[in-house]
Design goal:
The structure holds 2 protein chains of 2 kinds. Chain A is α+β, with helices and mostly antiparallel strands. Helices cover 58% and strands 13% of the residues of chain A. Chain A has helices spanning 4-40, 43-76, 98-105, 110-115, 142-147, 149-189, 207-257, 264-290, 303-317, 339-356, 406-411, 417-427, 451-455; strands spanning 81-85, 122-124, 130-135, 299-302, 324-330, 334-337, 362-369, 376-382, 431-436, 442-449. The model of chain A has no long low-confidence stretch (mean pLDDT 82). In chain B, helix 1 (11-23) links the parallel strand 1 and strand 2 (26-31). Classes of the chains: A alpha+beta, B alpha/beta. The A-B interface holds A 238, 241-242, 244-250, 252-253, 256, 270, 273, 277, 281, 284-285, 288, 296, 339-340, 343 and B 10, 12-13, 16-17, 19-20, 23-24, 80-82, 84-85, 101-106, 193-194.
Chain lengths: 457, 232
């Protein structure tokens, strides 16, 4: 009985039953109430009251006033009260039953005739019209009770409240776990691989709970696969280290034998070994960043100083190529960061820009307060290169992505630099994005929370 | 001739390194696991231990921790390049310096020579041009002849690198010594970016020496500038 179908079926079914019951109960309560009113105040007293009222209104407002008053009275009074004119017609045009007509026709009792008492219930208007106020007790039917406006309102109110409550709770009951699931799916997609949902749904055992369990199974499996892939990457990289270490010593031995004479081939081997070493270091650092370890050894850091240092050293590296790295604007900013990690993130971004900017152009770096978020700092690195096809922009931060042009193939793609930069920036609570500059070239923006942002929360 | 004990589980690497180091004028003995490394190191037959962190059974950190209980023999750690935490742990445990692996053997030789130079100031009296003297400051006495430190009458065990760092700071007591200066004078090499060695040596010095008798900090870090030994 935990199936969702049953829950939906039961809630509709029960709400209708409750509604019917409540309507009937309320209607009977209303009739009871009318009766008890009758008990408290005898019908005769009430009639006397109505008669006085009718006479007063007839005297002051005439037939028109009487009609309005009677309409109003009919709405709340269970017993129909009729005002019958000389022709035997009701003022509101309601049917006059035979026994009523008979009662009116009947001559007054003899003792009354002697005393010249006017007929019972006589109402006269200043215009000379005469009416007789007569209650029609026999016309008190269930249909009449149910068609009184006040009684009609009851089932509507009951329906609104009951169906409202049931629908509200049913909707919440159905949509809450689904919302949670979709939020979980989004978070999982964003990289929170440790996320599980089934335990947050309490003791539910229906289709939604099954879906949650299926989600958890899938998440488990994906997490294991990704972990295995990362572990493999990390293990392979570690294993590559040993032959590389031997290669470097062998190279050293070769140089010793040549009495440290410069040999172009040995230089080349050394350079390639260095590259391999660099690549392995990057692979391992990416693997570590992705393994989800938190930010370790963070310290207060002068971001402006770090940026100038990176800009200077990259500018120095590419000096002689006709390309340059320059800081356009530089705002002082303090960030909480792991210096090594943030340095390598910035260096990777700036080096990448320096690699792609056209000869004779300048890589422009600007460090400004972020307009979009108070207390954040925005670092923009813009090159004057070929840019990146729009559809590849999002994938630019994937490892070894190739954006497809010939020059890119020759240079070996974007490698790991931007992937490492992205992971490192994210680890610092920041964001990194790339877009093509309207005037050409690629512009990479890094947003980081500063000390100010953390203080204000 | 300097005798080097090389502890690394990569036998082929050890063979080649031995050949390389011998050509550079060292006498080399290689061991391939932690237990052997500790056992050979305790014989005091060597001038310096080159110790790889990643070894089966007893890793480099365990060897260093055990060795430091009885010996202040110079130790150069070989650490994986990306695991910068390894170098910090190594220095905290009392290594004199570290080299990341894979490394250029020339760099290894340079580091070995620098570490040995510091250590041999202790061993070979008179190699220092200045005559032995005793530096005294508050509760601390430094004997430059024997390169030993006495705190409140008690000898303090420290590595030759720690001694070198302390000596520079003591001679400049009351003045701030920049990190670059300290690196060149005490470690014998230029300060590289984000090199944590000095920080680690200083933190172990602080741990061994404690605060001044009046409770003040003995060695102050002057942010962004360097370090200062507090003088009365």
């Amino acid at each position: 009985m935990h199936r969702l179908v049953w829950k939906i079926f039961l809630s509709f079914w029960l709400s209708l039953i409750i509604f019917a019951g409540a309507s009937l109960t309320l209607a009977s309560l209303f009739v009871e109430h009318a009766r008890s009113e009758d008990d408290e105040q005898s019908p005769r007293d009430r009639l006397k009251l109505y008669l006085e009222e009718a006479r007063r209104i007839a005297a002051s407002e005439g037939t028109g006033g009487l009609t309005a008053w009677l309409e109003q009275l009919d709405r709340r009074e269970v017993t129909p009260i009729l005002l019958i004119d000389a022709q035997g017609r009701d003022l509101l045009g309601r049917p006059v039953s035979a026994h009523l007509a008979e009662r009116i026709e009947r001559p007054p009792p003899i003792h009354a005739r002697h005393r010249r008492i006017p007929p019972r219930g006589l109402v006269q208007t200043p215009g000379g019209a005469e009416y007789r106020l007569v209650p029609d007790f026999r016309a008190v039917t269930l249909q009449r009770v149910l068609t009184r406006p006040r009684v009609v309102a009851i089932p509507f109110i009951a329906a609104a409240i009951i169906s409202g409550l049931v629908s509200f709770f049913l909707a919440r009951y159905l949509s809450r776990p689904i919302r949670r699931l979709s939020r979980a799916t989004r978070q999982f997609g964003a990289g929170d691989l440790g996320l599980r949902v089934a335990s947050t749904l309490g003791g539910r055992r229906d289709e939604v709970a099954e879906l949650a369990h299926d989600f958890d199974h899938m998440a488990e499996r994906l997490q294991a696969l990704i972990a295995a892939q990362r572990q493999l990457l990390s293990d392979v990289s570690h294993e590559l280290r040993s032959p590389l270490a031997r290669l470097q010593v062998a190279l050293g031995l070769a140089r010793q034998r040549e009495n440290n004479q410069p040999l172009p081939e040995l230089d080349r081997i050394e350079r390639e070994a260095e590259r391999l070493n660099e690549l392995i270091a990057q692979l391992l650092s990416l693997a570590r960043l992705e393994s989800g370890v938190g930010l370790s050894r963070a310290e207060e850091l002068d971001l402006a100083a770090l940026v100038s240092e990176v800009a200077e050293s990259t500018d120095f590296e590419i000096s002689g190529s006709g390309r340059n790295v320059r800081i356009v604007t530089c705002t002082p900013a303090q960030v909480e960061a792991n210096p090594t990690l943030l340095h390598s993130a910035l260096e990777n971004v700036v080096r990448n820009a320096a690699k792609y900017t056209a000869d004779g152009t300048v890589v422009e770096i600007s460090l400004t307060p972020d307009d979009q978020r108070k207390g954040w700092i925005l670092l923009q690195v813009r090159d004057h290169g070929p840019g990146v096809p729009e559809h590849m922009l999002a994938r630019l931060f994937d490892p070894f992505v190739r954006v497809g042009d010939a020059r890119d193939r020759a240079s070996g793609g974007y490698g790991l630099g931007l992937a490492i930069a992205q992971r490192a920036i994210q680890l610092h609570g920041g964001e990194i994005a790339a877009r093509n500059h309207p005037q050409g070239g690629l512009s990479v923006s890094i947003r980081l929370p500063t000390g100010q942002a953390r203080e204000t929360g | 001739m300097n005798r080097i004990l090389l502890a690394d589980d990569d036998i082929e690497l050890c063979d080649m390194l031995r050949e390389y180091l011998q050509a550079e004028g060292f006498q080399v003995e290689a061991v391939h696991d932690g237990d052997a490394a500790l056992q050979r190191a305790r014989t005091n037959d060597h001038d310096l231990l080159v110790l790889d962190v990643m070894m089966p059974a007893r890793n480099g950190f365990d060897v260093l921790r055990d060795l430091r209980r009885s010996s202040q023999m110079p130790v150069l750690m070989l650490t994986a390049r990306d695991e910068d935490i390894d170098s910090i742990v190594g220095l905290e445990l009392g290594a004199d310096d570290y080299v990341t692996k894979p490394c250029n053997p020339r760099v290894l030789v340079a580091r070995i020579r620098a570490t040995l130079r510091r250590a041999q100031m202790t061993a070979e009296d008179g190699s220092e041009p200045a005559s032995p003297e005793v530096l005294t400051l508050d509760d601390l006495q430094m004997h430059t002849g024997s390169r030993s430190v006495v705190l409140e009458g008690q000898a303090v065990a420290m590595t030759s690198t720690e001694y070198s760092v302390l000596e520079v700071l003591l001679r400049e007591a009351g003045h701030v010594v920049s990190k670059a200066d300290l690196s060149e004078r005490a470690l014998g090499r230029k300060l590289t970016r984000y090199d944590r060695s000095l920080d680690m040596h200083l933190s172990s010095l602080r741990r061994k020496l404690g605060p001044l008798p009046n409770g003040a900090e003995r060695i102050k870090t002057v942010r962004g500038v360097g370090y200062q030994y507090t003088s009365p």
